Amino acid sequence: MTNRNQTRAVQVGSIQIGGGAPIAIQSMAATQTQDTDATVHQVQLIQESGADLIRIAVDSKADVRALAEIRDRTRIIGANLSVDLQENYRLVAEVAPFVDKVRYNPGHLHHHEKGKSVEAKVAYIAEQAALHDVALRVGVNCGSVDPALRSEFDQDDVAAMVASALQHAQILDGLGFTRYIVSLKDSDWRKVVEGNRRFSIERPEVPLHLGVTEAGIPPDGIIKTRIAFEQLISEGIGDTIRVSLTLPFDDKGQEIIAGRQILDDIANGRFRSVPTALDHGINIISCPSCSRVENEKFIELAQDVKAMSAYAADYDVTIAVMGCRVNGPGETDDADIGMWCGPVGVNLKKGEVIVGHYPYDTILTEAKQLLDEVITSKVPNSPPMTESNNI
């Protein structure tokens, strides 16, 4: 395997990321954070699968109180914990005492305290991280880049993502805070490869967290992730990874197992060729679930959508199934058909347009009807899809 980039070392709890350390493997708890018994159980399952770091989402003060208990109960098994800040960046002061790393999304900083500059908000995050001896991850998602940067780069969303990562790396460096890792993610593995390549050329010393967001259900999600990792890691890019899969809660450890298998194959020269059909045909994007999911039916829905759409395997159609209202609205915009799930129903979209809100027990029928319409619109002069020609 090609020698890895000589990135600087970042200490995260009991592990080192970068600086020549073995590539660390991560996962994320998918349970409701306030359900401490379920979350502790899942952390234990993921830890037993061989995780180096486990991330937990925090979005409220009640989540913070639960996080404190989760930390106490998982300390005995040696779990390194990371926390995922959402739009309220000020929660960093309350969560930092209970974790080893904090992840923030630059694209979410504009939501709160709009009168404050991005630099001032990052300075606050860095100050709290330094005070509590924790590392940071600058987690940039292609689908949620700051609107100002997105408009600056027009349709080149990869360039906007890279610019955001470079901007925040520069801000942190200027503050004298260098204990950070960067991630540049998207549900399209090509954008993940391109974005990380661009960033690593500009900042080869910064450790990178690799992942394909909303990779989907196995085996498709593993294949997409494997292709991105094979290309980047073989070029020396990447210090920690996550395989983001849509899985039942008790099976989240499969993300770790899949990650270790991919790393082992790369280390031993066992590469899989990219199937020529991978860039064509039906593409199901689904998020890996986390504590923001408001209804566990989302996981079953993603599996049902994959089965329902099998008849459309030869059509270039992207269907996105998102599990929460945080990422759902924006990260379904680029799909032909989007579904983002709430507590009692699912928002169905055609591109950026909301078609309607439907109960979980009828959404599949509505989605199939919309899929037929999308297929017809993509194939000029084709007859309408019917039961006789879509089986």
Characterization of this structure:
With 391 residues, this protein is α/β, with parallel strands linked by helices. The protein folds into 2 domains: 10-267, TIM Barrel; 280-378, Sulfite Reductase Hemoprotein, domain 1, CATH 3.30.413.10. The chain has helices at residues 36-48, 61-74, 92-95, 118-131, 147-152, 157-174, 189-202, 220-233, 254-267, 297-308, 328-331, 363-378, and strands at 10-12, 15-17, 24-28, 53-58, 81-85, 101-104, 135-141, 180-185, 208-210, 240-242, 283-286, 318-322, 337-341, 345-350, 353-359. The strands form 3 sheets. It has an 8-stranded parallel beta barrel with strand order 3-4-5-6-7-8-9-10, surrounded by 6 helices.
What is the total number of structural domains? Answer: 2
Largest sheet: 8 strands, parallel, barrel
Based on CA atoms alone, the radius of gyration comes out at 20 Å
How many helices in DSSP terms?
A: 12
Taking the alpha carbons of the first and last residues, their distance comes to 45 Å
Strand order of the largest sheet: 3-4-5-6-7-8-9-10
Low-confidence stretches: 386-391
Broad CATH class of the largest domain = Alpha Beta
Q: Look up the CATH topology of the largest domain.
A: TIM Barrel
Order of helices and strands: EEEHEHEHEHEHHEHEHEHEHEHEEEH
How would you name the CATH homologous superfamily of the largest domain? Dihydropteroate synthase-like
Strand content: 15-25%
Mean pLDDT: 88
